[in-house]
Design brief:
2 copies of one chain form a homodimer.
Chain A (H helix, E strand, L loop, with lengths): L2 H7 L3 H19 L14 H12 L9 H4 L2 H33 L2 H9 L5 H30 L6 H16 L18 H15 L2 H12 L9 H25 L9 H18 L11 H13 L12 H15 L6 E2 L2 E3 L1 H28 L5 H12 L14 H16 L1 H9 L11 E2 L5
Antiparallel strand pairs in A: 1-2
The structure holds potassium ion (2 copies).
Amino acid sequence: MNPIISRIRNLTPAQAIVSYYFLAIGISVGLLNLPGVHQDGVEVKFIDSMFTAVSAVSVTGLSVLNVSETYSTFGIFMLMVILQLGGIGIMSLGTFVWLLVGKKIGLRERQLIMMDHNQHSLSGVVNLIIEIIKILLLIELLGALILTFYFTQFYETFSQAFIHGLFASVSATTNGGFDITGQSMIPYHNDYFVQIINMILIILGAIGFPVLIEIKAFLSGKNKNFRFSLFTKITTATFGLLLLVGTVVILALEMFKSFRDMSWHEALFAAMFHSVSSRSGGLVTMDITEFAQGTNIFISALMFIGASPSSVGGGIRTTTFAIAILFLINFARGKNEIQIFNREIQLIDVFRSYAVIILAIFMVLFATIALSISEPTLPITAIVFEITSAFGTCGMSLGITDELSTFGKILIMVLMFVGRVGLISFLFTIGGRTTKTKFHYPKERVIIG
Amino acid sequence: MNPIISRIRNLTPAQAIVSYYFLAIGISVGLLNLPGVHQDGVEVKFIDSMFTAVSAVSVTGLSVLNVSETYSTFGIFMLMVILQLGGIGIMSLGTFVWLLVGKKIGLRERQLIMMDHNQHSLSGVVNLIIEIIKILLLIELLGALILTFYFTQFYETFSQAFIHGLFASVSATTNGGFDITGQSMIPYHNDYFVQIINMILIILGAIGFPVLIEIKAFLSGKNKNFRFSLFTKITTATFGLLLLVGTVVILALEMFKSFRDMSWHEALFAAMFHSVSSRSGGLVTMDITEFAQGTNIFISALMFIGASPSSVGGGIRTTTFAIAILFLINFARGKNEIQIFNREIQLIDVFRSYAVIILAIFMVLFATIALSISEPTLPITAIVFEITSAFGTCGMSLGITDELSTFGKILIMVLMFVGRVGLISFLFTIGGRTTKTKFHYPKERVIIG
Ligand SMILES: [K+]
Ligand SMILES: [K+]
């Protein structure tokens, strides 16, 4: 066998994911340095096109440069290709891992869906992934068409409207969060139609592909015995709750501050849009530096939690957060088992959530200290916001991205990468595989807290 | 039986601890409002004497007023009584809980020590606690004498030197962190002798009483079979490592900044003293607002971790931190058991550490958002520093304590109380006792991170 193929076959899923992203970043840097990518007379430093590539592949959307003033139409098209590379990569790899986990533990819905598609072989898996890519492209195209026709009222030519509509749809669905208006969604702060379309596209991207697959299987109605998996129930419930809590808290904190001159529906939409956006979308409809510091710390916490696993979003993921909360509630009640939706959470998943949270907190803390030393003039709230935004692959910023030093840019790139790959994959890639302990020491209690 | 005594006997240990502190705070508020406590013409608002009482009982040391300008010599004596009430309370309750846990799980060293003191009855436990109080008072007296004789060179009369020496010793040993110079330890920033005495006293208070008891048992040499408990090994190792890492990082971050005009030994002592102080002492030898923001965030993290369980310090405690780190390392290596010092950590202790960390992070995050909304003019680094200082019952401050609104003061009081009682006790007091689940749901896996 070809030694390279043999090596690829020996990769663990985690190593495969990390390798894919490294490769994708390499290709993206190449694409962003093709001739004709930049507008006439614009020069971009290597570190900055590297940053744009990492940001686009990880579908984060943080940007050290103004996209609308830097890239030509061809360049914007390339950026869209890279967003697809990131988005589809996540989707395929996410689905692949989901199927793998399903195979190992005999997930009932997976089996049903597999049967549904007659997919017991590798080619079956490939077919399923192709079908999912079709779903994504369909969503993007639908969004693009709706936005294009709507945008024809703002632009002189249809092709201009189409470019903006297509880019907006791709950017929202992949949760890329880049904008070619130069002002994110601020020009549409009174346009609820555009906002609603964007929120729907963002949610479809961030809710997780297993959820989309199960909803499709449910809607098809072919399997009488179909039930939603525990994963889908937990992640959807958590996602919904985070959106609700996010909207209510942002509204409460800003009602008499940055929202004070708004009508009730303007304020509601502003709160709702930024709550949705904090899951992973990264678009804004107003200048968020106007928010109170407390609001921006709250949004940082939301971005740190991030979106569903196997979605275009990052962070510690909804399920990690949900299990931590469920664990805490059960522990305070003196229960040893976590029961939810008539199912019991397994111990290994409690352990995983613990590991992910501890590691994520260390990373954010370390990055905060490092950045506050390397960028002494930047306010700490903006630094924490930037860091959690990168780790959550969200892309909102308090406007400091282009002021970062080279060290700061590299640090944010690493955080976007880790946020994208996911800490569990990262942990296993560093730490290797599970090993069995050969002998046991006697156990002994320790006083905690 | 007297119904009140019967009620007290039915308290869980956690409820007993919470009740003790409530009672102690009540008594302390009374003591601080006795006639003659204040200097002539000084009026103190109720919320402020309440704050001082909570700060002294929890041996935190945060202060909304200038102790040296507010309290008379009698008042300072009362403050010392309250620090003892807090310090001895912690010591006795800590030892009691330690013995209780030891009884339940048959801790070998506990049995040896109990045999050593012929203490198989309640009166035996009381005797042991009395002996520990003797140890504490001995340490304080020794410290007081050394400092008094040393201070005679600075003060005109012996009694002045004695008052300052005694207060300094009590404040350091109980980790109270109050000062009657009005400038903490800044006047002694070049006096390494006073600093070393203070550091030793702080460490003796913060290392945990079980550790002191075991060292005493070890030194007595009566038991040939004596070995240190896993708890003592873990907490001492973690304590030492935190001191070391704290010193090195503070030195590295400030070497070319606030330490740039210092000689190497001045810089080393400054780094060392604030590292020791961040465990729980709360004294400072320089104006710490001169530290870089990154350094103060790092110190916040150290204060959040805090000191040993069953010590005069607070925070999540060294053992909680140690188990989290050990868990993470083992998890990354793919091991399911945590092995350290030839012993295995029990699952319940891993769970406890998880619960404590999650709850503590929520508290700090909630408090940060709340304070940044209620005190919009204060910088966020100072707010986070104040919050972690209160939760870690450390008492260092970036100087905002007396600028807090009434809401802010109440919030900081709650944090000092929770930090003192410990989150595990807090959790069980709210959540009640352990209950057994009657039936099990099927288990199902969830995708994490
Ligand atoms: K994003
Ligand atoms: K203290």
